[in-house]
Amino acid sequence: MKRIKDFFSNSDRGGRWAAAGLLAGTAVSVVLSSPKYGVAVLAWVCPICLLAFFRLVPVRRKAVRAFPVLVLAHYLASLGVAPFPAPVLVLLCIYQSLVQLALYGADAWVVRRVGGLAGTLFFPSMAVGLEFLNTVYGGGIWWSVANSQYEFSWLAQLASVTGIWGISFVLYWTASVVVWVMGRGWNGKLGAVPGIYAGVLALVLGFGWYRYSGVDGGGRSVNVAGVTVSLVGLYETFYSDYSGGRVVVNPRGSVTDPAMRLVGQAEAGYVETADTVRFRRAVATIRAVNDRLFALSQLAVDRGARIVCWSEGNGIGWVTEEGGLIERGRRFAVQNNVYLLMALCLVHPGKITPGGKFLENEAVLIGPDGKVMTVFHKNNPVPMVEASRRGDGIIPVVQTPYGKLAVSICYDADQVGQMRQLARKKADFLLLPSGDWYAISPFHTYMAVYRGIENGCSVFREVSNGLSIASDYRGKVIGSRDWFGGGRTLWLADMPVGHVRTVYSRIGDVLPYGCLSYVLLTAVVLVFVRSRRRRGLSSTDRMALQL
User: Which residue spans within 123-237 are E strands per DSSP?
Assistant: First the structure.
């Protein structure tokens, strides 16, 4: 079989056409595999296209050709997804593109010098290493390619062994092996590489099938209810009270929509003035929202719920009203003999300053005896979006008759290292009140389910403006509610309860550290070999090489 590399090399014109086609495939894959569209299979296609471009296509200035394509593709993929102003988003896309160019350029340099299995492993190792460093220092797991593969349930089980890094590794290694074969042709001289790759993949999928098809962990369950009240009417009322005008908030819009910027100005006016007369209709709407939350919670209990969870920041008030809201929650829990997780947005009135924190994004868990079991503050407010005060980094886990219950909030679940507390504390299930927007749903919910697979616990994620889900330790869906698919404000799920030990909870991030070590070792060896070869040349040869 003729090598595809030879096909690309037939002529300069053929090379240019190949380059254009591969870059177009890259761009389409980047956009359509993004959280907005979620075409998971294209996450496998993208690195194949870009690797083939850098390894096989004989055109010059590859980085110059690829850079604008990548920036544009990332911008289209992130528009409405990343909650940042356009200038910040452009800078983020430029950074992402430069990192990709460094990755693919380094791989092309290495595979020219390292052959066989070792050569195919460099690209996935560096890609996973970069993902890991971005997670640790860049604000969370958001941009990991593994997030797109949740619905591939057998592969998703690998997260229980390696964390999501193993899923990313398999995807990137697939691309590396495919392009390696493309460069050689299937002519019987490929050696052991395809066989080793196929064996590893079969082992991974076999394990995934076994785990996903296994028995439920523990056999216990508890009826949990999710409750959310829409705040669209409140947003529009804020603006009306503030300006006397009218704004229409699109329920499927993002936080950066022009209408939401106007609402933000109105809310800032309310916070800074605390003028309950001017904003009297907004104040009345806030009371109605809180009343509705308790009414829906009562309806949930009447339908059999033993635990009720509100969505992130759905209960609203001034900080001075916190005691009254909690007291109301205590009475509710005692009267109904249930656990109530109140997710509150509490406001400190006063002048808003750049970078100032005037919100408390908290979750208050109240037991059936009326005792406040924990008051949890969101550990990781979304950068440049949330003006809320950061928590202490601890995820509380409390003992209940139904098992060990953990509490966290939304974006906290994007912090893989922090969420490993679930395994260390042997949590049986996690209540995760959250708030999303249309462009990141259901993607963001699926990201959170991975934390249950990694740490061996069930996850109940109640979401405003997104997909709410109840899943077990395998990520298997027990129940769900799509806010945009029906708009139900109340739903229930019979949650399985029971902690399952995972390999990942014991070994942690061994894989990404191993990947980084492999990249570093490869670089050191290649530099050493090159140095030895240069020293072995004659002085004339060295001068020629330098020229």
Answer: 220-227
| pLDDT value for 538 | 46
The H or E element containing residue 36 is: none
CA-CA distance, 489 to 231, in Å (whole number)? 12
CB 402 within 8 A of CB 431: no
Coil, helix or strand at residue 453: helix
Of the candidates 447, 450, 441, the one whose C-alpha atom is nearest the C-alpha of residue 473 is 450
Cite the beta strand spans of 169-314 per DSSP E: 220-227, 307-310
- For 362, the enclosing helix (H) or strand (E) is strand 359-366
Q: Which element (helix H / strand E) includes 138?
A: none
3-state secondary structure of 91: helix
pLDDT of residue 140: 81
What is d(CA 337, CA 175) in angstroms, rounded to the nearest whole number?
54
SS3 label, residue 163: coil
What is the structure's pLDDT at 542?
43
> C-alpha angle with apex 127: 82 to 111, nearest 5 degrees?
140
CA distances from 507 to 160, 423, 511 (A): 10, 12, 9
In angstroms, the Cα distances linking 56 to 45, 100, 255 are 16, 17, 42
Q: Which among 294, 425, 395, 400 has a CA at the least distance from the CA of 339? A: 400
Q: What is the mean pLDDT of each run of 10 residues along the chain (547 residues)?
A: 53 73 96 94 97 90 94 95 89 95 96 92 97 88 93 96 98 96 74 93 97 77 96 95 94 88 93 94 97 97 98 96 97 98 96 90 98 96 88 96 96 95 97 95 95 97 96 95 84 94 96 97 89 62 38
Put simply, whether the predicted model's pTM sits higher than 0.70 gets the answer yes
Q: How far apart are CA 216 and CA 474, in angstroms?
A: 9
Count how many Cα atoms sit within 13 Å of the Cα of residue 130 in the half-sphere of its side chain.
20
* Beta-carbon contacts of residue 233 (< 8 Å; ≥ 6 apart): 285
